[in-house]
Structures are given as C-alpha cells and as structure tokens.
Amino acid sequence: MSLKFNDHLLPTLPIMECLPLDRIIGITSTIPIEVVFAAGYIPIDLNNIFVCDRLSYKMVEDAESAGLPRNTCAWIKGVHSAVWKFHIRKVISVVQGDCSNNEALMEIFQSDGVETIPFAYPHSKADRAFLHDQLLKLAVCLGVDYARAEEMKRRLDSVRAKIHEIDRLTWMDNLVTGEENHIWTVSASDLMGDYTVFDERAARFLQIAQGRTPISHDLRIGVIGIPAICEDLYSFLTSLGVHVVFNEIQRQFSMPYQTKTLVEQYSRYTYPYDVFSRVEDIQEALRLRNVNGLIHYVQSFCHRHIHDRVIRKYIHLPILTLDCDRPGPLDGAMKTRIEAFIEMMRHNAVMT
C-alpha cells in the first residue's frame, strides 16, 4: 500500500507492543468497526500492519514456510503472519464479500487457538435484512447493545467527514497528492485503532494542506482495484508528472456516502458486492474528477482479476492493468509499462 507512516502529517500505525492484547481484534478486511469500537475493542487492520512492516517480504515467505501455497495471494499470507508476529488472539474474518480464501484462513487460525468471528456481507446489496442480521450477530458476539453501535456511527461520521474533505482537496483543489489521499483513505479501514487520535491528525493535516500551492501536473489519473501491494507506485507516478485524483477502493473504505444507519452505510459500500456496483461508482467519479486514464491494479492469484474484462467493457478510457505479487518496489518491467502508458496518454492529449 506504499504507506509512509513516518511522515508526521499522516496517519500512523499503532505501536502494537503498547496495546492491551485482550482488547485487540484483528480484521481481515473492512468490517463494521462501529460495533468493535462500541464494544470497547481496538480494531486493527491486519493488511496494514503487514504491508507497513519493514520485513513484509519475509512475512510472505514465513507464511509459505508454515504451509500456505505459493500460488496464494500475498495479502492472505501477510495477514497470516501478522497474526502470529503481533500475538493477536481474536480475528474478525470476512467470509463472504471479500477474498475467497478467508474462510480457509479462518480455519487455520481456529486450529491454532486463535478466536475467530465470521462476518458475511450479503450476495446482493439489496438484501438489507441479511446485512442487519449479520450486524446484530456481531454485536451479540462482542457483547454490546446494537444501539450503541449506531451511536458510534454518528461519532465516526464526523471523523470520516475529514477524510472526505481530504479527498475533495485532492481532485477539486489539487492540494493533496494521490499518495496522501491513498494513505488517509486506506487508513479509514480501522482509523488507526483510535478514532480520536485519527480525527486530531486529520484536522491538522487539513489545516496544513489548505495553505499549499496547487499541484500542476498535466495528467489526471485514477487507480482502481484493491490497494496496491507495491510500495512506490504513487511516488513513481508523481515523478512522471501525474496527479492521482481517484483511489477507488480506498475511497470506499472511508464510507463516502451520507447515510443514516449502519445497514444503509454498509449496503452502499461497493467493495463486497458485484462488479457492476463498482463500475457505476467508478463512472460517476471519472465524470466528476475529470480523469484522463486509469491504472487497474490487480493482485496476483486474486479472483478479482477476472473483473478486468467487465471494467474494460463499460469504462471507455485508457486503462493499464498492473499485476503485482509481493510487497516491494516496482520492477523495471512495471516501470516501463507505466511510462509507456503515460506517454501514450500524453500523445493522445496532444492529438485531440
């Protein structure tokens, strides 16, 4: 995810060694963190602590040494290693609406003594009764009154509003870089495990960003698909004079729509549902943000790679599909492909 948590203006990962282990709940994907916070627990996105670890590449190798297949997504292997490295004893796993390997990973955790809590999104976003039932089950499992989770939603709405403003400053005022946008929005999955600190840092970032000189890059692109595992995608695009004004899935983590209830909020969250919901959201963002082209990031061995065909059918902009396997910098071949894609877009812009 190319997160740079050493920057004092950006979100930071919690210091895992300083957190009470009995209050940490690892999450394998974005789930209703309102329920977790309302119950007095600390949600920690296992993907974030994996990819930000200075030995993230070794964490993938460690999972393979522990028996996970080589041809399994590196995110799954990283999540597996993160649980053991940070001694996490309770995990909420999305068993429907995310990676198809999550259920098997949950069973591995169970066999090794980690408490697991399944959460399933409905097959259809229209099935709000199923989603409501899952929310109630999660609240019961964590021992909290569901009404308190709805109250927490209203508190987190004000925190997320700052992320939405950071996003607006990215595409409308050109005051926030694509990488900063990526970091803030992807961090919305767990709000650093402390929404109060996150809120304070976001307010400070907004104050500083509003005093900047606007970015003047000549090309505006979007990055769609799951957050990239390669660490330097955004910095490389910036070096080519490109402004990333749309991060699709990361923006979804911030719950970008105004909603009144948790059921409405998580039924409008596009990531767990069909690709057509995503395409509709992408098309609207492209119109609004004046995007010249897209990079579709796909993770090696991920079933979502298949969606590339549907996306290309309905989105009529230049699209570069970028496939990556393990954490680390872009390799030479990837950089060459990106450079050629950007040059092609510049040529097309001149011709028109």
Helix coverage percent: 40-55%
Strand content: 5-15%
The H/E string reads EHEHHHEHEHHHHEHEHHHEHEH
Total number of helices: 15
Q: Tally the beta strands.
A: 8
Lateral arrangement of strands in the main beta sheet: 2-1-3-4
The Rg value, from CA coordinates, equals 19 Å
Q: What's the main sheet like?
A: 4 strands, parallel
Average pLDDT score: 93
What is the CATH class designation of the domain at 16-143?
Answer: Alpha Beta
CATH architecture of the domain at 16-143: 3-Layer(aba) Sandwich
CA distance, first residue to last residue: 34 Å
**What overall geometry do the principal axes of the alpha carbons give?**
globular
CATH topology of the domain at 16-143: Rossmann fold
Low-confidence stretches: 1-5
Q: Specify the structural class.
A: alpha/beta
Structure commentary:
The chain has 352 residues and is an alpha/beta fold. It has a domain at 16-143: Rossmann fold. The protein has 15 helices and eight strands. The chain has helices at 33-38, 46-51, 56-65, 74-85, 102-111, 128-142, 146-171, 178-186, 195-209, 233-239, 248-253, 262-268, 275-289, 308-314, 332-351, and strands spanning 24-27, 42-45, 90-96, 115-120, 219-224, 242-247, 293-299, 319-324. A four-stranded parallel sheet has the order 2-1-3-4. Strands 6-5-7-8 form a four-stranded parallel sheet, sandwiched between helices. Strand 7 (293-299), helix 14 and strand 8 form a beta-alpha-beta unit. Helix 6 crosses helix 12, helix 7 (146-171) packs antiparallel against helix 8 (178-186) and helix 7 packs parallel to helix 9. Residues 1-5 have low confidence and may be disordered.
